[in-house]
Amino acid sequence: MHMSVTLRRVQRWWALAIAVFALDWVTKQAIEVNLHYGQEIPLLPFFDLTLRYNSGAAFSFLAEAGGWQRWFFSLIAMAVVVGISWRLAKIGHSHKLEALSLTLIMSGAIGNLYDRLVYGHVIDFIQVHWQSTWYFPAFNVADSAITVGVVLMLVEGVFHKDSKGKAE
Which of 104, 160, 163, 166 has the maximal Cβ count within 10 Å? Predict the structure, then answer.
């Protein structure tokens, strides 16, 4: 495949990934500038803005591991970006829902990778809770993009069938 064809196939997906990354970055910067660590601003009875730092992975997995996890999760994110870019070059023009789901996952990986490399932790600021007694771990736009991407991928796997009735 020629390089120009490959670039054309991935450029719209990379443009979307950059836009989601930019939204993630802008929101994190706004929270970082306007809140102090741990501050909570109630917006709805079940939703607060807060400033939290996560040096681990999802749900603070390995957050207290001593520092090596920063580089481990950064390498995983870089591998994800390269792998997804390769896959987008192959399917970006023909499998739109899969390409969208992969792009959202990639943009979230880039957003959290940026935080890990620049700050040594991921900035989280969305806090969902129930009656101030149960709290879901804080998250951010990048985490939301990854989640939506995974859900879209599952939806495609369940509902997108080829003519023989098998998932493509």
Answer: 104
